[in-house]
């Protein structure tokens, strides 16, 4: 008699439970790797590693909002991957084979869903703003220039230049506070040679 009651108990557990609820965890591990191997990997803005990482993503986080994996490195374009929930068809077939109740349990709990993509391979492309500088751009660093911002004239020193002919300029505003701005070369008037 005890054997029959144990058997019936086991049958009830497996028929009233669902396959996805029993075997599908509430998180997914996502493998991220690629080139360059020192790129920073972030999950929803939180650091996960350099170049490669296993990221544990809670499925519930995707149900209530967006989740993204961002890969970035100075001098390269950012690589952004939105994560989505997807149905896992294998659990539908198993639940239907076990009966209707497991199917309803999995549908109600959302356990039949997985995270997509499960593997991310990145190959960051060089940013056009971070290509090697030409002699023109290199020679402008340290030069004193005049420029205007909202029809006010300022004078400053070029700290950095980019290949797209843009310069970062350090200057003092009307309150004598140190400020920085970016200006295209065409907007600048060179007033003095390189500063020592």
Spell out the blueprint of helices and strands.
Elements lengths: L1 H15 L2 H5 L3 E9 L4 E4 L2 E5 L1 E7 H5 L3 E6 L6 E9 L1 H10 L1 H10 L3 E4 L2 E5 L11 H6 L3 E6 L2 E11 L3 E7 L5 E7 L4 E4 L4
Parallel strand pairs: 1-8
Antiparallel strand pairs: 1-4, 2-3, 2-5, 5-6, 6-7, 9-10, 9-13, 10-11, 11-12
Structure notes:
The structure is a single chain. This protein is of the alpha+beta class and 196 residues long. Helix content is 26%, strand content 43%. The chain is built from 6 helices and 13 strands. The strands form 3 sheets. Strands 3-2-5-6-7 form a 5-stranded antiparallel beta sheet. It has a 5-stranded antiparallel beta sheet with strand order 12-11-10-9-13. The chain has a 3-stranded mixed beta sheet with strand order 4-1-8. A hairpin with a 2-residue loop joins β2 (40-43) and β3. α4 packs antiparallel against α5. The longest helix is centred in the N-terminal third of the chain and has 15 residues, at 2-16. The protein is elongated and about 100 Å long.
What topology, given as strand order, has the largest sheet? 3-2-5-6-7
How far do the termini sit from each other?
Answer: 98 Å
Low-confidence stretches: 16-20
Range of strand content: 35-45%
Largest sheet: 5 strands, antiparallel
Quaternary: single chain
Supply the number of helical segments: 6
Radius of gyration over all CA atoms, rounded: 29 Å
- What is the molecular shape? elongated
The helix-strand sequence is HHEEEEHEEHHEEHEEEEE
Please tell me the overall pLDDT. 75
Helix content: 25-40%
How many beta-strand runs? 13
Structural class: alpha+beta
